[in-house]
Design goal:
heterodimer, A: MetI-like fold, 2 domains, B: 249 residues, alpha/beta, four-stranded antiparallel β-sheet
Chain lengths: 269, 249
């Protein structure tokens, strides 16, 4: 607290940016530490029964156990594969179709009823159908993932390509750029910020898609593990599954964020 | 390179379906190496005329020529500078300037050599690796000028290139343009709102009427070169500027 106060004061008086940036870097970690302390306190003083919210120590012990017996790795790997394959499929199809739609409003008119209908239906509602059609293996989860990431990515692609400035398109025409050059040197870099925003959303949604599929019917994956633990009232294991999923989504998001920083250096100025 | 219009007119169809005449019919001829300014009230089709010359807008009637060849599409011998700098924000200054060369498949070493030469000419050498968002309006517009020069076009088209700049920056950039032109006189067609600017820069000023734009005056500017900004206070300059002003309706 003393640290926080002194930083705030020094900023007001001398406006040294270093202190602030240091605080900003450690702010998320501080929040996490506070949440852990709060969590430990709840269980320590038995404000909530331990079978509902297990103490952090208990969850940590469970973590070590499932890491050691290979259970966590096996289920994480299954979910991660579903997520990555589904994400790749959904995003590439959305990029392809989004580009076509952005260039041809007529195609949009034809496809919009389908797109709107599918987009406004909750995935959870039609996921059972996918299980019936594609079985309880990984395929149905991959398809759920692909479908859930498809729409946000499609919309971002359309917006990104359509927002390419008209003046720059004129410039490319005056310079007699061919179709491929216009795509590579104008449309892609111009739409990239919006595309990467779409990819960030998609990366986290992909995890949702895989878990939805696994909840309905599966024999492996973190969603399956959580379901199993729930049926056995093994709350620590449920926590392990949930935290693992959170970490997975956060890491995927982080990868895209790093990619964004690397590719959009010009945005920093 | 000679530029000419033979009875060119352009009409647009509005969204309501009505036909809106924008330009012409207009006929004129600009000799090779001549610096011509187009002035006229806004909405007189000046930009449309430039777009026809650039091959971006086909005339509704009549034909526009480069030498004796009809203009039907953009040509690499014609460079167009826009109202805004129109730079790609993700490219550095030198990569913006050398974009035209990149599109024609010139290798990187040659491209950068040409780019550096242009940057030096425009006093921008220190900024070659800066991103456009860090540049002032005047600098960005000079980069735009540099990009047009990269292909060394025989005809330079400028559509109100300094419209968004403040008076002093505007003067600086137009002097840069004059310097570039005097070093290598090529055909220049420039749209401007500023009568003094047109008389200071041009060999000849064409005045367009209100929509649909027609040429109402063709005024020779036979002031000696090289010209200086202070020339605008001489009696002969003022006399020509007055003539231009009086023909604008």
């Amino acid at each position: 607290m003393q640290l926080l106060l002194s930083i705030r004061r020094s900023r007001k008086e001398t406006a040294i940016p270093v202190d602030r940036s240091l605080l900003r870097r450690f702010a998320p970690i501080l929040t996490l530490i506070l949440v852990m302390i709060w969590w430990q306190a709840i269980t320590l003083f038995q404000l909530i029964p331990a079978f509902l919210v297990p103490p952090p120590i208990e969850v940590a012990r469970q973590f070590i156990e499932v890491i050691e017996n290979g259970l966590l790795l096996r289920h994480t790997w299954v979910t991660l594969q579903e997520v990555l394959v589904g994400l790749t499929l959904g995003v590439s199809f959305a990029l392809f179709l989004g580009y076509l739609i952005a260039e041809s409003p007529l195609l949009e008119d034809f496809l919009s009823p389908l797109i709107v209908a599918l987009q406004s239906t909750p995935v959870v509602a039609y996921a059972p159908l996918l299980i019936i059609w594609f079985g309880s293996g990984m395929t149905s989860k991959v398809i759920t993932c692909a479908l859930i990431v498809f729409f946000p990515m499609l919309m971002n692609t359309i917006v990104g390509i359509r927002s390419v400035p008209r003046n720059l398109r004129d410039l490319m025409r005056v310079l007699q750029a061919n179709r491929w050059q216009t795509f590579l040197k104008l449309e892609i870099p111009s739409a990239l910020p919006v595309l990467l925003t779409g990819l960030k959303t998609s990366a986290t949604l992909a995890v949702v898609g895989a878990v939805v599929g696994e909840f309905i019917n599966a024999s492996a994956g973190l969603g399956f593990l959580i379901n199993l633990a729930r049926n056995q009232f093994d709350t620590p294991l449920v926590f392990v599954g949930v935290i693992s999923l959170a970490v997975m989504a956060r890491v995927l998001y982080g990868i895209v964020a790093v990619l964004e920083r690397r590719l959009l250096i010009w945005k920093k100025f | 390179m000679r530029v000419s219009f033979k009875n060119v007119s352009v009409s647009y169809r509005t969204t309501g379906g009505a036909i809106l005449p924008s330009l012409g019919p207009v006929s004129f001829q600009i000799e090779s190496g001549q610096f011509v300014c187009l002035v006229g009230a806004s909405g007189s089709g000046k930009s449309t005329l430039i777009r026809v010359l650039a091959g971006l807008q086909p005339p509704t009637q009549g034909v526009a020529y480069l030498n004796d060849q009809a203009i039907t599409r953009p040509s690499s011998r014609v460079g167009l500078m826009f109202q805004e700098a129109n730079l790609m924000p993700w490219r550095t200054v030198i990569d913006n300037i050398t974009l035209p060369l990149e599109l024609t498949g010139t290798d990187r070493t040659t491209r950068y050599a040409v780019g550096q030469e242009i940057l030096t000419l425009l006093d921008l050498a220190d900024f070659s690796h800066a991103y456009p968002s860090t540049l002032s309006g005047g600098m960005a517009q000079r980069v735009g000028l540099g990009r047009v020069l990269a292909l060394n076009p025989e005809v330079l088209l400028l559509d109100e290139p300094f419209g968004a700049l403040d008076a002093l920056t505007r003067e600086q950039v137009s002097l840069d343009l004059m310097k570039v032109w005097e070093r290598n006189p090529r055909t220049v067609v420039m749209v401007t709102h500023d009568i003094h600017e047109s008389v200071l820069l041009a060999d000849r000023v064409l005045v367009l009427s209100r929509r649909p734009g027609r040429i109402v005056a063709d005024i020779e500017v036979n002031l000696p070169r090289p010209r200086q900004p202070r020339d605008i206070y001489t009696t002969s300059f003022i006399e020509i500027a007055r003539q231009v002003r009086e023909s604008i309706v």
